[in-house]
Automatic annotation (TrEMBL):
Top enzyme class: transferase
Subunit composition and interactions: Monomer.
Taxonomic classification: Bacteria, Bacillati, Bacillota, Bacilli, Lactobacillales
PANTHER family hit by this protein: NUCLEOTIDE KINASE
One Pfam family here: ADK
UniProt protein name: Adenylate kinase
CDD domains referenced in this protein's UniProt entry, alphabetically: ADK
Main location: cytoplasm
Catalysed conversion reaction: AMP + ATP = 2 ADP
Gene designation per UniProt: adk
Source organism of the structure: Streptococcus pacificus
Region (NMP): 30-59
Amino acid sequence: MNLLIMGLPGAGKGTQAAKIVEEFGIIHISTGDMFRSAIANQTKMGILAKSYMDKGELVPDEVTNGIVKERLAQADVSEKGFLLDGYPRTIEQANALDDILTDLNMVLDGVINIDVDPSLLLERLSGRIIHKETGETFHKVFNPPAAGYDENDYYQREDDKPETVKRRLDINIEQGAPIIEHYRQKDLVYDIAGNNEIDLVFKDIVEVVSSL
């Protein structure tokens, strides 16, 4: 079973990925893990990636694609299948992944797309507040401080401010739309309503994956 998992920041992709891996025994492959492993093991592509990172430069697509190919070619993946998380991030990478899978005689079985209304994600991601004195973290909606709290006693990190979160969501939507469409044309996308409770979302995913 070879799968991709996609979803906007805050949609619960990481939580569901962990549950999928546990349930189906496939290999979870995230971009960060791949890079760390390739660099630690000093693979050809890992050494090349590190040379860019050491200079503070972005790692080019051809190197990222090479690291993905190295990882997918390993024995544990061919034996158990994979859940690819965080790649592809661009339509160019999606096209490269098509070529990689062809070269490795692999087939992509499905794309799990955890779909959540961006306005709900904005509320979810921009609600975090931190108490100035204690550093304790709360959420305005899901875990508020005591009733009648003084907002002046709390602050938000720049990353949590609504305008920053909205910009991040907009970028992800813009980048993700052509990738989703690419896989829709291949009839591989399975949309999962991500607004529900975690266990209900996972139940829907299990039904889809079990049917593949």
